[in-house]
Write a structure and sequence with these properties.
disordered N terminus; 12 helices; 4-stranded antiparallel sheet; alpha+beta; about 15% strand; 5-stranded antiparallel sheet; 4 domains; SH3 type barrels; Cytochrome Bc1 Complex, Chain D, domain 2
Length: about 450
């Protein structure tokens, strides 16, 4: 497995110069009060938040440098939607700044060498979109307790959506739904399947599949190539399909669009009030979530009885680092061919031993990255990335030795002395218990 970086799609240099010149003109004529800062942020929060001139300047620069990939008004195109306020690689101001300045390894997002104030201007503009700029301090009427009850019972939201580790995994996690405005949430509930709404809210593509034997499955697509389709069905089970056995496949909206008839106006308002109360994923609650099934202790103890899997770093508790599988022998060794290969992003050496649990391979890349892959094809199922905010100047071993799996949780350690627990089904975080500092 070789080390490489994915290709960057960069804006031509002349566009950088035009963009920087354009923002400079706006700054000189309109934003004269914005003091120029160094090329590294000196604050975790945007110093120009809500500043109209900064928003206008950021909008101009966004259209010149970002819109080609992320679409007009951050609605998403080739790149993800940015107007939701819920971003996969971090939604805080500092996270967004680092994503623009340094790029995102392993993706097509390149680094942009823009002045600090220009980056903050883009962030100010993105914060102003979708009516969410003032969402954090918005006061919403409604009965929060009643709304929570509706979410888990009459509304049936928890069958697909998750809040703090509880609920379904087919639809997006709503643990941070309260960062959106009340009007935005109302639109999501009453008109979820409009093109703009669906693109901004849903992370994966809803899909319906019919197989040759007549089985019909609805779910969320996780990965696909010319030969294989991988999806999570409505029951939360990961399903793999050989495309030669699929006779029909089409996109489908999974979110019901009849809540306006199912719920009363008062119930909808209470549901919005409950969603507005969800400001951040509560890891103390998520860590206590009771996940179904998964890799139990008895299976780990008897790992040698499952030679098709590789459940621990050494293969089993006996630590033999040996597989009893006998398909590869000295007589056919010369006939082996590559079935699949996956190039891992980043420049770090790979020192992990991948684990295989029931057809899914879990492994690490460069420090902070964890991947779930389909063991048969190498297709990606999910990826988690945690950025190390502070790097020890004496750090000399930027490597990771892999993961451990127990139940439906994947555990890995970081270079800044933290153990992170992820949902093995989705890659969502379930806890970050830090090691005690001596």
């Amino acid at each position: 497995m070789s080390n490489c970086r994915t290709q960057d799609f960069r804006v031509p240099a002349n566009r950088y110069r035009c963009a920087q010149f354009g923002i400079l003109v706006i700054s000189l004529c309109v934003v004269t009060s914005l003091a120029q800062r160094s090329d590294t942020p000196d604050a975790q929060k945007n110093p120009f938040a809500g500043n109209g001139a900064a928003i206008a300047a950021g909008a101009a620069l966004y259209r010149q440098t970002c819109e080609a990939c992320h679409g007009g008004e951050g609605r998403g195109d080739r790149g993800p939607a940015l107007a939701t306020g819920n971003l996969r690689h971090g939604s805080e101001d500092a996270d967004m700044f680092q994503a623009v300045r340094n790029g995102i390894p392993g993706t097509q997002m390149p680094a942009f060498s823009l002045p600090t104030d220009s980056v903050w201007g883009i962030i100010s503009y993105l914060r102003s979109l979708s009516g969410n700029s003032g969402a954090a301090n918005e006061i919403v009427p409604g009965d929060v307790a009643a709304g929570e009850k509706i979410f888990w019972s009459k509304g049936g939201c928890g069958r697909c959506h998750e809040v703090n580790g509880r609920g379904g995994i087919v639809a997006p996690d709503l643990s941070t739904a309260g960062t959106n405005s009340a009007d935005h949430l109302r639109q999501m509930i009453l008109n979820p399947n409009t093109a703009i709404t669906a693109r901004q809210w849903f992370e994966q593509s809803g899909i319906s599949v019919k197989t040759r034997d007549g089985e019909e499955i609805r779910g969320v697509k996780r990965s696909e190539d010319d030969y294989t389709l991988i999806l999570t069905d409505e029951a939360g089970e990961l399903r793999r399909f050989d495309k030669q056995n699929v006779v029909e496949q089409h996109g489908e909206f999974l979110m019901p669009d009849n809540y306006g008839q199912v719920l009363s106006a008062a119930e909808i308002q209470s549901l919005i009030a409950y969603l507005k109360s969800l400001k951040a994923r509560d890891l103390s609650k998520a860590a206590q979530a009771d996940l179904p099934d998964g890799l139990g202790f008895e299976r780990l103890r008897n790992a040698q009885a499952e030679p098709q899997n590789w459940l621990t770093y050494w293969g089993s508790y006996q630590g033999l680092h040996f597989s009893p599988l006998n398909q590869i022998t000295p007589s056919n060794l010369g006939q082996l061919q590559v079935r699949w290969a996956r190039q891992m992003p980043g420049s770090s050496l790979l020192e992990a031993t991948p684990l295989v649990v029931d057809g899914t391979m879990y492994t690490t890349g460069q420090p902070g990255q964890v991947f779930a892959l389909d063991a048969r094809t190498g297709l990606g199922i999910w990826k988690y990335e945690r950025r190390q905010k502070v790097v020890n100047p004496y750090q000399t071993n930027p490597f990771n030795r892999g993961v451990a799996v127990m139940g439906n949780r994947v555990f890995f350690g970081t270079l800044d002395a933290t153990v992170v627990a992820l949902d093995a089904r989705t890659g969502r975080v379930f806890g970050k218990p830090s090691w005690p500092t001596p």
